[in-house]
Amino acid sequence: MKPKLVLLSGLMLCAVFAWGQNTVNGTVVAQDGEPLIGVNIIEVGTNNGAITDLEGNFSLQLITEKPVLEFSYTGYGSQRIAVEGKTNIVCTLKEGIQMEEVVVTAIGVTREKKALSYSISQVNADEISTVKDNNPVNSLVGKVAGVVITQATGGPGAGSRVLIRGNNSITANNQPLIVVDGMPIDDVGSNSGGSVYNSTVTGGGITDINPDDIESISVLKGPNAAALYGSRAGNGVLLITTKKGRAGRGIGVSINSNVTFDSPMFLPDYQNEYGQGTQGNVPGSVSELKNASASWGPKLDGSSELYYTGETRPYVAQPDNVKDFFRTAGKYINTLALDGGTEAFNMRFSYTNSRTESVLPNSDLENHNFTLRAQTNLSDRLSIDAKATYFTQDIQNRASLGSEGILSYVYYMPRNVAIDDLKTYQIPEESLSSVSYSALGANPYWMLYNDKNTEDRNRILGFGKATYRFTNWLSAFVRVGSDVTNIRRESINQAGHHFWASGRLNFGKIEATETNADFLVMANAPLGESFDLSVNVGGNHSYRTYQESSIYAEDFKIPTRAFVANSRIIRPSYVPFQEKKINSLYASASLSYGGFAYLDITGRNDWSSTLSEDNNSYFYPSVGLSFLLTRFVDPNSRTFNLVKVRGNWAQVGNDTGPYQLYPYYTIAQDGYLGRTTLSRPSVKFNPDLKPENINSLEFGAEIRMLNDRVFADFSVYDIETVDLIYDVPVPPATGYSTFRENIGKMTNKGFELLLGGAPVRSSNFNWEIAFNYTHNKNELVELFEELESHQLNTTNSGNVVIQATVGGGYGDIYGTTWRTTDDGRIIVNAEGRPLATAEKVYLGNAQPDWIGGVTNTFSYKNFSLRFLIDARIGGQIYSVTNAELDASGVSTQSLKYREGGILVDGVVEQEDGSYVPNSTTISAQDYWGAYSGIASNYVFDQDNIRLREAVLGYTLPRSVIGNSFLRGATISLIGRNLFFLSKTIDHVDPEASLGTANGAQGILIANLPTLRSIGFNLSLQF
Fold first, then answer.
1. Between 251 and 673, the higher pLDDT residue
2. Rounded to whole angstroms, how far apart are CA atoms 802 and 789?
3. 922: pLDDT confidence band, cut at 50, 70 and 90?
4. β-strand partners of 820
5. Long-range CB pairs of 442-447, under 8 A, 24+ apart, other chains included
6. 953-982 exposure pattern, b = at least 16 Cβ within 10 A, e = fewer
7. SS3 annotation, 224-277
8. Which own/partner pairs from 626-635 qualify as long-range (CB within 8 Å, at least 24 positions apart)?
9. Which of 76-85, 590-599, 698-707 has the lowest mean pLDDT?
């Protein structure tokens, strides 16, 4: 790690002390003099560009001899200005004229959006940093067509699952590649959770990127847009561009303070009529009462009854016992940024401190982010760009989900248990055991205050880039960057724990690194009067490592001391140092004719160290065409400002991890009779393994009309994945459980639509609206001979299986249903309880049918209002939470049949196979106990529409600021997850999941509640 730090430090020092001469500063304003935020500035004929800040200012280092700048902004006409030696430029853009939007594409190349043959979306800084989240990807929810983001309710520091155009693989990663300033970053921890028992949802990848440092996020949708990134980009790319310094008078100071307060958006609906007990009675002893830990007792009438502490107390409801367990949690994100420079050199330093409390007591997160970036021109031809980021994060008592998670002992507690009583989780003078209302002994306060669960994450990211301009039309850069992540985790279950009475601890360390070295040669020149050609040729060397060590210890000798040497059982484990190398060469060519026809061709060849010599070289091509038909449809642009059609075909893939080709052996710590014993994996590896192959075909069209007052963009795509890497089950006689093979085919077909415009534009009032819609249909076309499905997850009882099914899709939900006769009559057992089927039937699929979002932005003078409503329609979810609420007698639904029981309208099967009508009445407790075990009763539609974000802001006018030291100020009232407009499932959020991993979708088990956040954002510039 030290050589990497030395390299980064050297590059930073070089940038800081170097001196050059070609930087231009400027300001972009509207006709009324107000600054424009997020204007794209591009140096014509190059990929060199910038974006204006909150004050409309920009700074750009120039790389051509006679530079011309092009300014473009949504809803405004583009403008070109020749620099001609000027060091400061003021550009005024006019509204209502066709603009040429510039976006960042693959390999960091900046291009005009109109020339692209594929769909790409870009989200700018203000949409990411205003309604802020520790995880910046959550700010994309509902804003980008084709992207489904599932926010795992794992508490502070948890990641989110991101899918662009569906699931492409059964067992491999389905989430996009994250690229920051041109450098791919490590994603350790971004696929986590999924255990139905104890699911921990970690962060990683994009969750470690500071939202206040982000200038824009480009979403490269699938293989077509991301083909130049090769085998890592089969699932698309989130391309993050971070902020740079700017030249100006002195040092600019920016302060951003984001303060919000989180509370549960909603909680389950509880009954408050019946308390702890069984079959309508309160047992006479404490042990019997604790064995009856559900709310199946008599009515809560205030009479004196036995309490779980051994006391006799009034038998009354505690209507807020679940609500009072949660706290209002503060989230404080504060950023200080310094930037400045001269015409030759600029730099930016930022520090962000984030302190986030969980709604769970004694659980929180704190992180620190330091970033330094510097740019300079060493000469008229050579420029340097260098950046270093240090990130550290400390998480205390991260929440666990699932049947053994914290909320399993909160959501279902008896309705007469006072939550404050559970704060006495241990009486040391009597016993080390946990004190609880149940025989199990689980107590949520024990888990949060007595047990220990910590994670420390340290990460260093940095790069150095040198760009050289050979001529006006030819330039090149070389770049080296590293990403080093160290994670330390520790968990302790103190002696007396409800599952680990003798005590248990786990300690683990993970180190993951990624180093990339790349180069790119860029040529851009006209070919005669009608043709323009742009060619890029480059290469990349990627080197990734991973190692992990951990110690498991159990049975403490001294019960009150938790350390390894104090444990009778010690099991160390170690994942040896793993290496993966990929060498790549790639090229792209863009040919335009007459400013209306564009041809794009790309090709990339990867050589992967994880595949055999016969298969380690694979080539990924793409080709695209786009036509601007405006000159033919409406030559004078009276109605149409842009009419464009496009098409693109691309091929990329997914390779595999290291050491998957040949068998290896492990040595048992305690061999048989003290002898050294070796064991091999149960899977037979395959030396002929090939990468998964993804083919994608996309067609689309774009229209802008009425002086850009109306716009539309739609795409259709067909993605096919073949040669899926899969472990095929084999007979035990082979000596293995599975063989690793390339098999099967999976497809994703979909449609995306973006509509919007500006219904109102005036000098004081503006209204902009944008609507996006996404529909994706996923299908597992084939797997392997007689193998018809792959299991992704299953519930504790096995009554539900989440799987990928041939002829069906990824995330199919199969489960039990009511056992019935051939003519549809319900079958009950001899005691009168309804029965579930032995076999499982199809109950739904976890993938939504469609998602969409509507963003409205209103501005009146210095006030602005923006709000986002998004929807997820279709798809199903199995909720164990709902089933357990009914089974434990705490839900409002469980009030049915309390008085008098229920005679199920069904039949009882006789020994001879005949049926007789049921005549046995059962209690509500027996009925809901049986009902809750039938899976089909708890599969719900995910349909929901919510107010996802709202921002009400006020910007201090320039007339007030005058010539003071304050250059700008904006204060905003912000909110996230404010309320549902509609929802088809009670008690839970249908978008929640057990984690971000492939198998974590489609099941809910005691998830943390979705949080409503309300607060303010203050931005000051000095």
1. 251
2. 10
3. very high
4. 826
5. 442/408, 442/409, 442/498, 443/409, 443/498, 444/325, 444/406, 444/407, 444/409, 444/410, 445/361, 446/494, 446/497, 446/498, 447/406, 447/409
6. bebeeeeeeeeeeebbbbebebbbbeeeee
7. HHHHHHHHHCCCCEEEEEECCCCCCCCEEEEEEEEEEEEEECCCCCECCCECCE
8. 626/114, 626/115, 626/116, 626/117, 626/597, 626/598, 626/600, 627/596, 627/597, 627/598, 628/114, 628/595, 628/596, 628/597, 629/596, 630/596, 631/596
9. 76-85
Q: Are the CB atoms for 402 and 193 separated by under 8 Å?
A: no
Token pair recorded at residue 890: 């705490």
Distance of CA 51 to the CA centre of its chain: 26
Distance CA 718, CA 166 (A): 11
Q: What angle do CA 986, 989, 991 make, to 5 degrees?
A: 135
Q: 952-961: long-range contacts at Cβ-Cβ below 8 A with a sequence spacing of 24 or more?
A: 952/863, 952/864, 952/865, 953/130, 953/863, 953/864, 953/865, 953/866, 953/1017, 954/862, 954/863, 954/864, 955/862, 955/864, 956/862, 957/861, 957/862, 958/33, 958/34
User: What angle do helix axes 880-887 and 924-931 make, rounded to 10 degrees?
Assistant: 160
730-745: average pLDDT: 89
Instruction: Report yes or no: 177 and 235 within 8 Å, Cβ to Cβ.
Output: yes
Cβ atoms of residues 584 and 653 within 8 Å: no
Cα–Cα distances in angstroms (integers) from residue 701 to residues 646, 697, 953, in the given order: 6, 14, 35
Q: Span 323-331, mean pLDDT? A: 96
The full DSSP string for 586-614 is EEEEEEEETTTEEEEEEEEEEEETTS-TT
* Pairing of β 968-983 and β 944-955: antiparallel
Cβ–Cβ < 8 Å for 159, 152 = yes
Pure H helices in 971-1010: none
Instruction: Supply φ then ψ for residue 524, to 5 degrees.
Output: -145, 110
User: For residue 79, which phi and psi values (nearest 5 degrees)?
Assistant: -150, 140
Query: Residue 859 and residue 610: Cα distance in Å, rounded?
Result: 54
Nearest-angstrom CA–CA distance, 663 and 681: 7
Token digits for 554?
A: 């159990």
Cα–Cα dist 574/667, whole Å: 11
User: Around 913, how many Cα atoms within 13 Å sit in the side-chain half-sphere?
Assistant: 1
What single-letter amino acid sits at 106? A
Burial letters for 777-804: b for 16+ Cβ neighbours within 10 Å, e otherwise?
ebbbebbbeeeebbebbbbeeebbbbbb
Query: Would you place residue 119 in the very low, low, confident or very high pLDDT band (cuts 50, 70, 90)?
Result: confident
What is the pTM (predicted TM-score) of this model? 0.89
From residue 505, alpha-carbon distances to 194, 488, 553, 556 in Å are 22, 14, 5, 9
> How far is the C-alpha of 132 from the C-alpha of 1019, rounded, in Å?
13
Instruction: Dump pLDDT digits (tens) for 271-308.
Output: 999 999 999 999 999 999 999 999 999 999 999 999 99
Q: Is the per-residue pLDDT at 16 higher than 60?
A: no
pLDDT reported for residue 10: 38
Q: Is the pLDDT of residue 453 over 90?
A: yes
Cα–Cα distance between 224 and 777 in angstroms, integer? 18
Closest alpha carbon to 236 in 213, 219, 259: 219
Whether pLDDT at 60 is above 80 = yes
- Four-residue CA torsion sign, 228, 233, 236, 238: negative
Q: Higher-confidence residue: 865 or 21?
A: 865
Name the residue with higher pLDDT: 708 or 554. 554
Query: What is the phi/psi pair of residue 450, to 5°?
Result: -100, -40
Give me the mean pLDDT over the 620-624 stretch: 92
Are 71 and 78 spatial neighbours (Cβ–Cβ below 8 Å)? yes
For residue 189, is pLDDT > 90?
no
Helical spans, DSSP H, in 546-585 = none
With beta carbons less than 8 A apart as the criterion, state whether 97 and 705 touch.
no
Beta carbons within 8 Å of 953's beta carbon, 6+ residues apart: 130, 863, 864, 865, 866, 970, 971, 972, 973, 1017
pLDDT of residue 451: 96
